[in-house]
Amino acid sequence: MSGRAWADRILKKPRPRRSGLARRQMLVAWLMLLPTLAVVAVVAAWPLIQVFWMSFTNATLTSLQPPQFVGLQNYERLVRDPVWWTSVVNTIRFTLMTVIIELILGMIIALVINSQFKGRGAMRAAMLVPWAIPTVISAEMWKWMYNDIYGVINDLLVNKFHLLAHNVAFLSIPATSLPAVAAVDVWKTTPFVALLLLAGLQIIPNDIYEAATVDGASWLQRFWYVTVPLLRPAIAVALIFRTLDALRVFDVIYVMFGNQQSTVTMAIYDQNWLVNFSNVGYGSAISVFIFLIIAIFVVIYVTLIGVEVEQ
Amino acid sequence: MFINRRIAALLAVMVTLLPLLAACGGGGGGATPGAAGTKAPGAPGATATAPIVKPTSAAVTPVSTAAVTGTPSVPVTGTQTPAPVATTTAAPGATTTTGPTGMATSTTAPSGTAVSLTNIPTSKNTAPAVPNAAEAKKYSGQTITYYGDSVGPGHDFDMAAAKQFEKQTGIHVKVIPHPKEADQTYAQYLRLFQAKSPDADVLIIDVIWPGSFAPYLEDLKPALGDSAKTMYPNIIKNDTVDGRLVAMPWFADFGLLYYRKDLLQKYGISGPPQTWDQLEQDAKKVMQGERKSNPNFYGFVFQGNAYEGLTCDALEWLASTGGGTFVNQQGKVTINNPQAAQMLKKVQGWVGTIAPRGVTSYTETESMDAFQGGNALFLRNWPYAWGVANAPGSKIKGKVGVAPLPAASGQQHVATVGGQELAVSRYSQHKQAAIEFVKYLTSPQVEAWRAVAGSYAPTIVAVANNPQVQKAMPVLKVQAVRVTRPAGILGKNYNQGSAAIYQGVNQIENGSDPKSVLPQVQQQLQSLLKK
């Protein structure tokens, strides 16, 4: 049952009756929510409002003067900032590449480990290894594997499989650097997607499949007409999780590329202005813009997939 | 589900485990890189703002076995290597002033009054006696907090010095190592200053930071002005903001050309290249021969990634070929000039020929690894590389020479300077005790000890010229004009200006035309200078 359904039950449904009991229940509900709301206000709402406010000022960390209100100046500068738009394009490219591939691979893996075979438990545990490795470590590890002189990937492609004539600097050529880091993210996060989908698969009752088999449905038909529709909530959750994560990607790219412009993402560009350049005003404007872009994606998902399909 | 389970399971196993197994198995092709010991812990830091280079040649062995015989030991923990990159300062030989053209010119450094340095301790655990103990005793019983070094053996040196200081003066020193990544340190210091925090009394700061931290730092001129006169004037100039001496130089870094003596000899090349053209020729000649046995052999590796290190390398390329120093002393942006464009075009030509294509994402670590693994003839790096290259077990131990970086013919050899300074917070509640501690750390005795026991290049002229120090640090004998990044003139906008420079140069390396990139960089720098 979703939070929305709970809210409906507690807040909406008793309302028309407006009995004394209902009012008392409402009061108790609000009282019980109060501590949570207070915490949310302090740790989430207040900083958020602060960021919105800062984005309209010229606040810096290096100036001793209090920040001044500058209106929309930061935003005007931002929309004309070519590096910012590069970072937006990079981030969206990265998001599309990783989310689509992760979903496909995650689905295959989930189907595999949902079926009966020997060593399934060990398989499920082994699958999670890439996800369990801290991102900074896996990014460093992959950086070594991609290395143009010593990297194992070049060694395999050039010396073992003879697919390439000479070593390629995957991380330095702008055309290959973003796909290379997307591959790292796919390797690392596919298990997480598989896990979410596996949870969805496990609640699909077996008798539906049996009925479909009796009716003569092929494997593909069973997958398409039974598994996919029933898995929709799980797919939606996986997609939203992964898309939001990918849109704020920072660590894996920062470790592998630093500030290189061919791979700069929105979060890295923001960090640059907030921390390295101490420009809180401009950095906050970038943060607000990131917030808006992520919000657009969420709205698209909610309307397209319909997250609220549950009863 | 009736998928062919075995095949699918196999596929899943491969997808998840193969890269992991491959990584554990180590790099396949070519030689094994320079071991864990040379891997920078602060990779993120190295890429960011102002990574710090420290001449941590090593975990301190006594002089006799250290740099003299070229065998400083490097611990194989992953935490050794500096997340390098430098900043501004000096070293022996010469000082820099920048002429109206933006080109560095050289003046001879004062030789410095002789300081008698006897019994220089050779262990990082034994700090020398406190020369200013008598005055410092006045503040006995006070407690000061020192944000100290965290790279290489730096913290061990700090602890030893703090212990000695406390023993002789009664001032208690709390040593807190700063975060390993320079940009995090920068952010942490800013937070402390913004909060007007009395919790930091003495801070180690990068040589490019005095401009941006000046408003929060105490003027040390009244107390330490006399000792400042014994140091390299260009670093003192760097640390003086609006007439206030906001930090005391502590140790220096400078760019050097490392080369493979054995390979030059093998191919009949008489010595290290004097000009960039000669470096190109030598590199091509040796590559041609070496590639027969090692297809991954390259001529020259440097720091080409988009980060502070590239600003340092680019400064050397430009200043050594008449291309100026980005911004001249009069505050005029000089980066967009024909010589600069020509040199950067040349650098663009190196990428993928004498330098690996991957050099555009190399920091100190990757370039050091290529050299250390025997896959490069020339390396541009800081003094710490001497220790790493000559560490026990190093593939190239004893085969390495060090020289000034090449220059265009008729131009002077230059080196970008970096290093670390010590500053006192203006929000400190124990300023006098803090100043006494800085006085001790920047005394000739302590600088000599750190040079001999840890290969930290001294900032005091007389200490750098001391025979025992010179014997321990052969890199100190390399003569080049020291050039500084425009940190002072850009002040708090330095990080942004440096980013404009390294992003532009990185684009040129990756194939953009210098003639279209340099005007953009010029424009960005100009807008930062106006602020």
Description of the structure:
The complex is a heterodimer of chains A (311) and B (531). With 311 residues, chain A is mostly helical. Chain A has two domains: 1-45; 90-277 and 284-309, MetI-like fold, CATH 1.10.3720.10. Helix content of chain A is 74%, strand content 0%. In chain A, helix 4 runs antiparallel to helix 11, helix 7 (135-146) packs across helix 9 (174-202) and helix 11 (219-247) packs antiparallel against helix 14 (280-305). The N and C termini of chain A lie close together (8 Å). The model of chain A has no long low-confidence stretch (mean pLDDT 88). Chain B is an alpha/beta fold. Chain B has two domains: 107-253 and 417-486, 3-Layer(aba) Sandwich (D-Maltodextrin-Binding Protein, domain 2), CATH 3.40.190; 255-411 and 488-530, Periplasmic binding protein-like II (D-Maltodextrin-Binding Protein, domain 2), CATH 3.40.190.10. Chain B has helices at residues 5-25, 43-47, 133-136, 154-169, 182-194, 210-213, 221-228, 233-239, 261-266, 276-290, 308-319, 338-350, 364-372, 384-389, 431-441, 444-454, 461-464, 467-472, 487-490, 494-509, 514-530; strands at 94-98, 104-108, 143-148, 172-177, 202-206, 240-241, 244-245, 248-254, 256-260, 298-301, 376-381, 400-403, 414-424, 457-458, 481-483. In chain B, strands 3, 4, 5, 8, 13, 14 and 15 form a seven-stranded mixed β-sheet that branches. In chain B, strands 10-11-9-12 form a four-stranded mixed β-sheet. Classes of the chains: A mainly alpha (311), B alpha/beta (531).
